[in-house]
User: Fold this.
Amino acid sequence: MEIAQVILALAVIFILAKVSSRIFAKLGVPGLIGEIILGILIVSIPVGDYSLFEWIASEFDPSPGSSVTVHEIIEVFSELGVIFLLFTVGLETKVTDLTSVGKAALLVAVMGVIVPFIVGYLFVTVTGGNMYTSMFMGAAMVATSVGITARVIKDMKLMDAKESRIIIGAAVIDDILGMIVLAIVSGMARTGKVDVVNILVVSLTAIVFVLAVLFVAGKVIPIIYDKIQAQRAEKILKDPNYIPPGFNMFVVAIATCLAFAYVADIAGLAMIIGAFLAGMLFAEHAWEWKLEEKFESISALFVSFFFVYVGMNVDIQVFIDDPALLGTALILIVLACLTKFVGCGLGAKIAEPHMEMSSVSIIGTGMMPRGEVGIIVALLGLGMEILSNDMYGIIVLMCIATTIIAPPILSVLFKKKYNSPYAIRDSDRL
Amino acid sequence: MEIAQVILALAVIFILAKVSSRIFAKLGVPGLIGEIILGILIVSIPVGDYSLFEWIASEFDPSPGSSVTVHEIIEVFSELGVIFLLFTVGLETKVTDLTSVGKAALLVAVMGVIVPFIVGYLFVTVTGGNMYTSMFMGAAMVATSVGITARVIKDMKLMDAKESRIIIGAAVIDDILGMIVLAIVSGMARTGKVDVVNILVVSLTAIVFVLAVLFVAGKVIPIIYDKIQAQRAEKILKDPNYIPPGFNMFVVAIATCLAFAYVADIAGLAMIIGAFLAGMLFAEHAWEWKLEEKFESISALFVSFFFVYVGMNVDIQVFIDDPALLGTALILIVLACLTKFVGCGLGAKIAEPHMEMSSVSIIGTGMMPRGEVGIIVALLGLGMEILSNDMYGIIVLMCIATTIIAPPILSVLFKKKYNSPYAIRDSDRL
Assistant:
């Protein structure tokens, strides 16, 4: 391994990713989409006998095999990126918030999981896919990307609108439900057995893991935290010069995050589920320990590699060989939008039968974007060889499309209802 | 590559490194020494037919070659760690500070470079080493680790003492001089030619590179910065709602850091020199852009891997095979302490002939620790195959020893002179 070659490749890809992200953000599109498209381009653009990526990864002197190490390093960075990303999602998911969301948010979330899952599952089954592929498609359809909708709401300064509160509340529940669905689906796919016992074992593992973390985060940690605080206060009362031992909570958080990712893996679940749950453990005190800020710094380094890697795995040749796939992708995109719209809308209507249609539409649209969460599911399925290149490609397209389509519609609907004077102003990164 | 295997290895080594660091810090020894010793131990402790590292790096299921990928990943993390570490050292080296240090600091720095270099060079030449090895030993002897002494001074609340100001000022100049020495030494070793032309070319490249950065940092950047600020102020005057485009300076800094590291490499210098100079470019506004804070977050992740990797490269077998090496190491340690003490002391005496011996001693002792900087030089020499395993081992020992010895002596000398009531209190990390 030539270390300068690795550093050059990391530098070039990092810089290109950030520039792409910025260009897309300027156009009002989430920056991550720019990074995914960059990834698609660098492996697709041929320069002589090699791809652009192979040139970059070999100090511009490609030969067979010269870019293998860099590819592996980028895969590791990508995996760490998605682990840290899910940890930060977990950081934003407080157990106390979960218990305080209303009936409407709960029903919106549950219906927004059930309807897309069933439709995604049936879509693949009808087109001839096997059960595992169907389940992964269902799981990818279930995903909701909280970040993108929240950004729109914040930019319009409508955080206090009733619809906003329901959407944000539902998104939190949705994260948990989505993780449970993914845990069950990936766990079953991994063991490869489809008997009732296996379904029960995997489901139980996933649910017990999640419930255990919810219990620890909600009950155990507050008790320990309060006890330590009380002890410190007592010691300071006795000796005003006493300085409590300063644990570096950021280091503890990174260690927990990596350890949980691995434990999830050996428990038969996806590593990102472990990372997400680890994040939840720190959610209540994340602000006090500046964890969000600090993880943002390491995410700024790693997460771009994840989205570039997502793009690098999209094989555009499958669309060239079979243009009909684009039609399939289009159908999936329509289904993805409709199922969230109908599912979440229905949930809202059941919870509050007298809710106006304008509010129902806002909620349905706000829950549409799949963003990074759907893409994570897709890449996981590809890595497990459950999703074909075709399927992976159309799921990534679906996630990109729902993420681009929803924000402008949402802002129009919000403007119509609230006459908000604020235009959408997408910041430079997610 | 099994990604779970890599994540597990990173998690285990990260956790062990932080625990070691903490244990050593509790004992009043800089944490990085704990991390180096951990690195030595994991490759030296045999568990059955394999080393502890091979067990960790193979999900506890070692077989020949099973830990190769993890080793490569750790090497990349280590290299990124040292690049970011040198960038942060650069961040603390403001050009404006350079021009304002006094005559005493300047002479202390210059004499503290010349004396140790000559003695280090002669030491290897006398014991039969070749010219390149001698030069690398000289460069390793030159290094001063600002951080460790500064920590002692801060803990004793003596930042305003005259000796403290001279030490900190000298350390800044020392960083620049040390980088120039290293650039010349490594550049010459790389080309492998020892004619006058080559020495001139390499020295010129190094000096031009450093001067160019000093010029850009000191003259060009302030002009651009002021111009941009003036333009923004004007636009805001015209339109109070104008929001200036928010560049993410952290991303710009990472990109510059990696790019400069690579440019230094192709210019025939070490990558860390590029990283250090890149840091200097951002030094003036590092506080405004919160760069120190943010780089501290990514350093917390990467830098431990560097020190562990330093330890992993120490082959304790050489000391077992030839115990006389320990004697050589001891002589080198004594020389390392004496040369800085005499060189820097002499510099101080020349600048201020009436300076009390108690002050001269403080300055001489304060400049002793080689810390991470000497170790970086050693690892670079090992990687270039200029330093043998023996030489690498004794330099690491020397760096560890000077780093451990200096702080307690310094604190005793300071206490004697100033009757400072503060005991040394080493924080949990450097």
In short: The longest strand of chain B covers residues 46-47.
